[in-house]
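Obj: model holo form, ligand = guanosine-5'-diphosphate.
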Amino acid sequence: MKVALIGVGQAGGKVTERLARFDANMGFGAVQGALAVNSAKADLQSLEYVDTQLIGADRVNGHGVGGDNELGTEVMQSDIQQVLGALDGRVTSSAEAIFVVAGLGGGTGSGGAPVLVHHLQQVHDVPVYALGILPGRNEGALYQANAGRSLKTIIREADSTLLVDNDAWHAQGESVEGAFETINERIAKRVGLLFASGEAVEGVGESVVDSSEVINTLRAGGIAALGYATEIASEDSAENIRTAMSVSRQALLTGTSLPEATTADSALLVIAGDPDRIPRKGVERARRWLEDETGSMQVRGGDFPLESDRLGALVLLGGVERSDRIQEFMERAREAKRKQETEQADHADQFTDDRLENLF
Ligand code: GDP
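Output (holo structure tokens):
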């Protein structure tokens, strides 16, 4: 699937850069253009693989909006024409979809990404998706509250919002902060493979994935999730039937970007590997298992021919917003918002208490 990418904010820019780099290094050619937008100049200066656009310079002078996502919304609104202008020529006629990438818990990405999605929808005919990063459980209350508001708005605006929970793809024992590098690498690889799977070489493999299958899987709207797992495969495809099942199970049950989100409206199972090692029977069996497990009647399937001694399963789920994980997150966000409001009220109260009188 040929895509144009726009990263908003620090996390958005970094992940977009990783995606562009992965696509270039692998020679997939799925990423047609990549732009990073930020109100913090320093964050843009560290990026190499993407074009950059500073916003809000008249308001924050290149210093960012801090954790103020309402200000993030305002600066994106004020400078939207510059951002859309910077995209001219990047969202070419060959782009089949646009992805707006952002960490939902901060300021610029959290507030700016929903605004950008809204405007892109007015200007472009191709689907506009969001790739949103949810703060981990241990990130502060401000991040949770910001992400809750941002998620609510971006779901309304985007054709589908692919979510990555920061608690999902880091190695055990790593702190979330220390794990950003690992998480970003994993996002780049998995999402990069998803883009590239629709680009599979023609004439290789029996049922290669087409971009329209990705788009149709995301047509359910709402929230999407992505799972991935690989295992060493035998050279004889007949011996890999169990492997195809096993990687598919792991991709859905332990390898997903949104843990425990396994009930979906639609799904796509991509089996990646050397065409000679991909077992037809195993793929079909895994696809049927995925139908049962997700409760979806619309499970698409296909191969992604790659040179590798491993077999990989990439599972894209559409319409997972009913999952407990999302409800748990939204509750966490609401609780954080309530706490913020009470704290603000407490601070205001401390000077109205009349046991301490004003001096004059
Ligand atoms: P912004 O620049 O104001 O949009 O804010 P950030 O992008 O720095 O932070 C927003 C959210 O993204 C927070 O929940 C962070 O924990 C998270 N975040 C920041 N940097 C990264 C990163 O490099 N990778 C990942 N996965 N998350 C990040």
